[in-house]
Design goal:
Chain lengths: 415, 273
């Protein structure tokens, strides 16, 4: 019976209804042998029209028929592929006096940052252990006039390396590496934004500030109440008028350390990343390629998609799959770095290919020289598809001292 | 997401008895090893000891690759003729690197044959093989820690392990392994790892040919053994005079004993057999 009491409590939490009515309905369902969970859903469904507005803090993952009023803290549009066809979805953050939650809207509800909206019939899923609201075809969204004071819960502290798109109310500290001001047009209004790069001991990250905090490169600051969005796949830190920024007296410098690839894959990329891994595949478009002299695009058989018949300019590049056993990324090496790692110049390879009358020999040599070899790479991630792609700024073959490392590992194990 | 290529010792991989399927269409299959590796793709470096032709088409190959703990069985299938031909042309023994997918054969309930289906094969050198052993050990050490933590948990879940700082994939694999294998003898795997590492640290001496030193030591023992055998310290001392370092002399004595050419009639004395 206790279980039934609990279910009734849960139902009453979500709807405005008379307790005895709910009890009566529930009893009926139970008499018919309907399992309790189903009975609960059926009753909630029945009262669907008078859903009670709920605070965000009370929303749990995997619920349906959610009704709430919240403020749009951030929203951006992205294209996703659903069963082969492209469609636009909207991702962002919603907040009220009690919490901030990430949300996904599966259609355009014509809402923008700062709007306060009333939502009916939303659902929730689980993401990174917290609920995420989902606004679907069947949800209703309407703008309301009153404002909401956003939750003032203590922000959570993060190192920059651990920031993931979708996090909100974070606290970080770091040094501004560079910052620049630009103007953007949002809803016919010109706004100043400040974007740049900041660093702490663990990583560098791109940031955007939607308010003039008078930041200058070299400043060391503490930011409370920032959030994290995804920009070209990689996390980007965002702060605005709802955030607190304070200059602090602290010495902070990025110490470039090797990041395990699972972290790079989880974050979706990053900048000034240092990674190590073994080359397991050389992608087919590696080796000598030809570029259009006008647009620099790669051309095939002397024809540029843009400029037609052109005299191609040779270039050397390597696209390698690098894997450290915890994750895998693609790494692109430009001509200079390819020459460095191969120990030969592009002209050497052009001569070799001419001799063999086949550019394929260059690919073969890259395979022979690099496959199964560990590399250390420093670079920035670029917009990429299914696999994170890192554009290398430096590369070297990893020096192996297996004996020393093995001894260290043995010592670490305790003799 | 691209599946990472697990570096995994043959002994651990071949001891696996659990296979799980991922979610969604074209869901990949994962082998859950006793230490919680969740393997779909793997990277193996070892010594190629045997290649045989299988099937009637003359293309497929089955290869055996030895690592410090056991033998990996690797197949090159008909749709990877370039890999099969690399294997066919390789001499044995050769250091080899293989990247491939798990190959699961389950003829009946409770019987599981695990091997690898190669997507890439390449001859490598000893240095790269040693680097692989190191990578395999580092990953294994992390999973042994995670297993120990999970086995001490009231109700181990991937989420709790992730909160302890383990990578998501290891957390998921370990939670699944603890559920399936229950009590795993971690000491056994620690010993295995230690042996694999000492393979790198002591290999130099093993590989060296001590023929000359062996003869010298044998002569020294013969000259000094008398009735009861030559004193250990005397042999070492004499060896030093003839240019054999103490560590090497001890190594040679141990190896001569192993070969049954000398013995210790009493502690600290050596005699020819």
């Amino acid at each position: 019976m206790e279980e039934i009491e609990e279910i009734i409590e849960e139902i009453l939490e979500q709807i405005d209804a008379n307790r005895s009515d709910v009890e009566k309905d529930l009893k009926k369902f139970i008499d018919y042998g309907v399992p309790l969970e189903h009975a609960k859903e059926a009753i909630l469904h029945k009262y669907g029209v008078i859903l009670k507005e709920r605070k965000l803090i009370n929303i749990k993952p995997n619920e349906r028929g959610i009704c709430t009023v919240a403020k749009v803290i951030a929203i951006d549009e992205r294209e996703v592929e659903v069963r082969g066809s492209k469609r636009k979805i909207y991702r962002g953050l919603l907040g009220d006096e009690t919490a901030v939650l990430p949300f996904t809207a599966w259609k355009d509800f014509h809402i923008g940052k700062g709007d306060v909206i009333k939502i009916r019939n939303a659902s929730s899923s689980e993401w990174e252990g917290q609920p995420r609201l989902s606004l679907s075809e069947w949800s209703e969204v309407e703008k309301v006039d009153h404002d909401i004071d956003l939750v003032k819960r203590p922000p959570q502290r993060y190192n920059l390396i651990d920031l993931r798109a979708g996090l909100s109310n974070v606290e970080v500290r770091g040094r501004i590496v560079e910052v620049e001001q630009r103007e953007v047009n949002i809803a016919e209004e010109t706004k100043k934004v400040f974007s740049g790069i900041m660093e702490d001991e663990t990583a560098r990250i791109r940031f955007t500030a939607w308010k003039d905090f008078e930041l200058a490169s070299g400043d060391v600051i503490k930011i409370k109440g920032a959030y994290v969005r995804s920009w070209r796949g990689a996390p980007q830190l965002i702060f605005d008028e709802n955030s607190e920024v304070e200059k602090i007296e602290e010495e902070i410098r990025y110490e470039q350390k090797v990041v395990p690839l699972y972290k790079v894959v989880e974050a979706g990329g990053g900048i000034d990343l240092c990674i190590e891994g073994v080359v397991l595949e050389i992608r087919k478009d590696s080796g000598i390629i030809f570029r259009c002299p006008k647009c620099n695009r790669r051309i095939r058989e002397g024809i540029c998609e843009e400029d037609g018949n052109v005299e191609g300019i040779p270039d050397l590049r390597i696209k390698a799959l690098v894997d450290d056993g915890t994750g895998a990324v693609d790494v692109i090496l430009n001509r200079e770095l390819s020459e460095k790692i191969l120990g030969k110049s592009m002209d050497d390879y052009l001569a070799v290919a001419k001799e063999a009358m086949d550019y394929g020999v260059v690919y073969e040599e890259i395979v022979n020289k690099l496959i199964a070899h560990p590399l250390r790479i420093v670079g920035d991630s670029i917009q990429s598809g299914l696999i994170v792609t890192i554009f290398a700024k430096d590369v070297e073959l990893l020096a192996i001292d297996a004996e020393k490392d093995a001894e260290e590992l043995l010592m670490h194990m305790g003799g | 997401m691209r599946e990472p290529a697990w570096r995994i010792f043959a002994a651990e991989y071949n001891n696996s008895e659990h296979v799980v399927e991922g979610k969604g269409e074209k869901a990949p299959k994962y082998v859950i090893t006793p230490l919680g590796a969740k393997v779909n793709r793997l990277f193996i470096v070892g010594v190629l000891t045997d290649v045989e032709e299988i099937g009637v088409e003359g293309i497929r190959r089955r290869a055996r690759i030895s690592d410090p703990t056991g033998i990996h069985v690797v197949y090159a299938e008909i749709f990877k003729p370039e890999v099969a031909s690399i294997l066919a042309d390789m001499e044995v023994p050769t250091y080899i690197a293989i990247m491939g997918k798990v190959r699961i054969y389950q003829p009946e309930e409770g019987v599981l044959y695990l091997s690898a289906r190669a997507e890439m094969a390449k001859e490598v050198n000893e240095e790269l093989r040693n680097y692989w052993i190191l990578e395999a050990c580092r990953n294994m050490a992390l999973r042994i820690d995670a297993m120990r933590e999970a086995m001490n948990m009231e109700n181990p879940t991937a989420k709790k392990l992730k909160e302890s700082g383990y990578p998501a994939m290891i957390a998921e694999g370990v939670a699944e392994a603890v559920k399936f294998y229950k009590d795993v003898d971690l000491g056994h795997y620690e010993l295995l790892m230690r042996e694999a590492l000492s393979f790198i640290t002591s290999k130099k001496e093993i590989k060296k040919d001590f023929g000359e030193e062996e003869e010298k030591i044998l002569r020294i023992i013969e000259e000094n053994q008398g009735e009861d055998g030559a004193l250990w310290d005397v042999v070492i001392e004499e060896g030093k005079k003839q240019g054999i370092e103490k560590e090497i002399a001890e190594e040679v004595i141990a190896s001569l004993m192993e070969k049954g050419m000398i013995y210790e009639p009493q502690l600290g004395k050596l005699k020819l057999v």
